[in-house]
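Q: Convert this sequence to C-alpha cells.
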Amino acid sequence: MLFKAPSAFLVGFAPLNRFSSNSSNMKSQTSQPYKFRQPKGFDFLSFRLSKDAVRLLGGITANDEGAEFSNLTLFQDLLARMSFHPSEGSGFRRPLSIQPGQVQYSEPRLQQEWGIGRSRIRTLLGRMEEAGLILTSRTSVGSVMSFPSVTGWKLPGRAYAVNPLYAAETT
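A:
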C-alpha cells in the first residue's frame, strides 16, 4: 500500500490532541517542555507500511512520568530528522556520513528530549524495526537510523526521488 502525505502531516495524520506535541506533561530532563518535531521541507513523502507498522503507529508509549504519547508522534519526530541529501550528522561529537533516508541519532539524546528511559527507547525502536519502519545500526563511533518504510519523496521544485535505502531493500 502506498501513502502520499501533504507537506504538514505524515501519511495525512496529525498528532492526536490527547497526545499533543505541545503537551506540558512531556518534559525533557532539563524540565523544559519538549516540542516534538514535525517532518517538513518536502512536498510529499510516500510510504510502504505493513499492517504491523500501522498497528504500532496507532499505539501509545508512556514516558517515565506516565504521560502517554502516540507512537505516530514519536515516529514523526524521528522522521523529521531524516536527511534528503548526503550529509554528515550534525551536533554529534563524531559525525558520521549520512545518506538520503538516514539520520544519525543518539539514544541518550532521545532519552533527554522525550523523557523516556533508555530501555523503553530501545524497546520502541526495536518494535519500529520489527514493523519495518526503521533500521538501526550501532557502532562504537555512532548510531544511524534508516527509514526503509519511506519509499521516496518529492522536494519543492524537484522531481520525485526514490529512497535509495528502500530500493536497496526491495532488490
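DSSP finds five helices and eleven strands in the chain.
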